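Late entry, evening session. Most of the bench is empty. Finally got around to the prediction I had been postponing all week. Sequence below, unchanged from the version circulated by S.P.
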Amino acid sequence: MNVSIMGAGAFGTALGKILIDNGHAVSYYDPKHSALSMDEATHEAEVIVIAVPSGVMMDFCRDYPANLMELPTILATKGLTDAGLFGAFENFSVLSGPAFAKEIIAGDTTLLTATDSIARMLFENEQVAIELTDDLRGVLLCGALKNVYAIGAGYQEPSENAMAAFLTQAYREMRQYLSDHDASAGTAELACGIGDLILTCTSETSRNFLCGKMLRDGMVTDEICQKLDTVEGISALESLDRQNYPLLSEVHALVKKQPNRKFRQL
């Protein structure tokens, strides 16, 4: 199939590699990384994959061509808490789960969660396994929650015992949050939930984990904040309900107290 990927950053190009490995034709639209215009990149598209950063998603959707909303569209961006921006899309689904771009490029195996079988048809192969769920809202929420928890994980003392305790609390809170917000608590058991939670909360490859570690060590400067402009957990805190969720409240408090302008906005 002809697949157009919106966003040619690390994750978008990693997804493109999987598609090419599976014999699909791939084109990219990305003003920063591709010379193609939107029309050129989508001229023959049969499926759209959206992999732009969550922080620019609102602007991206505002200018999105109405005719492309008719095509099957797979959101691969994490950090959004609901699908409201995509209400006019006729065939919208989500792909999420534990997958660092560099490991996908290296050919490492992974398990992802999708909300439509088209993602399985496009992406599944010997490297990538796809599990399906109809809980689109739950998959989105897991992608936002795990980023916030990763900031908290980075802030923890560098102890395996402390990390195990934190992950246990985060998993329980994730389940409760899903149950309280019109999603299935069981979605936390999928790759997009517990799988991505473990990956994001235990690796310094995770920008959110690294952000928490820098906060703990007092290393957050203006320059570093510019480099952390894709820390999705920061923006997710603005839209997540924090009342009655101790870990979400704690992460919000430690971020808000930072003297840097980027964090004071919360």
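Two things to note before I forget:
The first strand starts at residue 2 and ends at 6.
The mean pLDDT is 91.
Will write this up properly tomorrow.
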